[in-house]
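TA notes, week 10

Several of you asked for a full example with nothing omitted. So below is the full record: structure tokens for the whole chain, then the designed sequence directly under it. When grading your own attempts, check the secondary structure regions first.
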């Protein structure tokens, strides 16, 4: 009997778009006995609800099976690749070039769970003990790259870690906007090592209280999109690579819901 749908389930239109992008089944070993669509639905449920693996509803495949596919796709960096493919499609439908020429960078410090282990630290500026998420987005707010690391690492050093992972994947990128936390020697480092221009968007000294900064609001909006996923309310993962995979998957989910992508 077909189960009742959850709000996070893929629609037929979304699955039609996503299915050709899925990794092929393994050539050796047992044949695949589960529906990959249900595996993906289970991951979207985990992402949106924030529940533990073992609390996955019984209507889905066994949590161990879902976890197996998640680790396999994470290790193959498939979530990042899927994010790139959907982003290019969406940019093209917005009348943009497939690859971005300008981007915005920012970071977000989040607490880690009590059971979490692995890399973590204390962000003295934001008074947060946990990890820091560094993201690079295009002018539409779509994710170009993400790097998760200990919150104790300063923004300038964290930005280098991020840029080193993506500088060969962004052929058209030329200009990056950032806040004052990235000023200093990083500007020269970016120019020499990445051949990009890092432009600091400064806050006006004449304005008090909240201020919408040019270009900077785009990346803040992306963080707001990501924060709607309860799995990302904290960093529950033991490995930073796993945290990055969930962020890429969250962005995939956001893009799949876009009217531009479905039309």
């Amino acid at each position: 009997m077909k189960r009742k749908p959850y709000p996070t389930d893929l629609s037929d239109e979304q699955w039609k778009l996503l299915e050709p992008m899925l990794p092929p089944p393994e050539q050796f070993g047992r044949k695949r006995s589960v529906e990959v669509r249900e595996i993906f639905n289970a991951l979207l449920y985990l992402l949106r609800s924030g529940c533990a693996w073992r609390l996955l509803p019984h209507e889905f495949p066994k949590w161990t099976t879902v976890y197996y596919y998640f680790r396999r796709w994470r290790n193959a960096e498939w979530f990042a690749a899927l994010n790139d493919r959907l982003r290019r499609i969406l940019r093209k439908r917005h009348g943009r070039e497939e690859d971005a020429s300008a981007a915005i960078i920012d970071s977000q410090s989040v607490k880690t769970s009590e059971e979490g282990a692995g890399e973590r630290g204390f962000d003295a500026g934001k008074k947060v003990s946990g990890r820091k998420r560094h993201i690079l987005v295009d002018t539409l707010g779509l994710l170009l790259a993400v790097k998760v690391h200990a919150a104790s690492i300063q923004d300038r050093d964290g930005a280098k870690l991020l840029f080193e992972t993506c500088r060969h994947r962004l052929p058209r990128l030329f200009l990056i906007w950032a806040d004052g936390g990235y000023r200093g020697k990083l500007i020269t480092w970016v120019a020499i090592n990445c051949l990009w221009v890092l432009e600091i968007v400064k806050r006006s000294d004449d304005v008090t209280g909240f201020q919408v900064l040019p270009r900077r609001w785009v990346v803040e909006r992306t963080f707001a999109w990501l924060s709607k996923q309860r799995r990302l309310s904290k960093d529950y993962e033991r490995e930073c690579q796993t945290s990055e995979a969930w962020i890429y998957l969250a962005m995939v989910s956001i893009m799949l819901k876009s009217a531009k992508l479905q039309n």
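The mean pLDDT is 90. Use that as a sanity check on your answer.
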